[in-house]
Predict the structure.
Amino acid sequence: MILELDCGNSFIKWRVLRSDGVTPVEGGVVGSDDDLLASLNDGQKFQLNKCRLVSVRTLEETDSLVSSLVKAFGVSVVRAVPAREMAGVTNGYEEYERLGLDRWLAMLGGFHLASGACLVLDFGTAVTADFVGADGKHLGGFICPGMPLMRNQLRTHTRRIRYDDTAAERAHESLAPGRATVEAVERGCMLMLRGFVLTQLELARQYWGESFEVFLTGGDANLVAGVVPNAKVAPDLVFVGLAMACPLS
Ligand SMILES: Nc1ncnc2c1ncn2[C@@H]1O[C@H](COP(=O)(O)OP(=O)(O)O)[C@@H](O)[C@H]1O
Ligand SMILES: CC(C)(COP(=O)(O)O)[C@@H](O)C(=O)NCCC(=O)O
Ligand SMILES: [K+]
């Protein structure tokens, strides 16, 4: 079986495929290397022999995870690496190796699925937007704080903004002006996210008229799905690109 990993700044997304490389067996989201190993060891239900991964973590952290995987499962590991060009997409960064690899893979996946111009929006620790034209040229993108960062900055840099996760979840039942701190913060941050999305859409229309696809990915994609009814919510977009960048023979 094949293990696929997307190591973000907050969470590791994992997925196990049959050896055919297409049939999903199981997947999940974990907060640490140890939790990943525990999920994969659970009942020894996976016979892993290959692994492909993408990481935006430090080289040390990624090396350490790879060593643990090799030790625990004896898998051979292939990592996604930066490229100037791949699968018809041209990296638009001046220093292409500095573009986040999760962004790069999501773009490869998006361009492949759209067969044309696409706007890829990723809602993780950070929120990112990337523009790929019909000719595969990446125009560049934007990075801003995601929901967890916005919320935590307010919590840690003010004295009187304090609330728990259950209250936060409840606050999202509506977008009316908040009448309690938790509502004011959660809904305020949500409106910032939505405003960001609408601005990206406007920009995409200026470039491409109506001829483009929008992909929403990342753990918080569902928070904004309502703002772009025509968007494809694609939680596995990074994995689509990962399979393209790291074929396992
Ligand atoms: N099962 C889950 N476990 C953890 N976070 C989740 C889960 N489902 C959705 N989320 C949301 O996803 C966000 C993290 O998104 P993710 O794309 O995993 O970030 P990153 O790639 O930066 O680690 C969290 O803020 C959380 O709200
Ligand atoms: C922008 C990111 C922090 C997003 O990470 P994530 O929120 O998915 O954990 C990551 O893609 C990254 O570290 N990029 C390098 C900087 C850049 O893309 O310009
Ligand atoms: K990510």
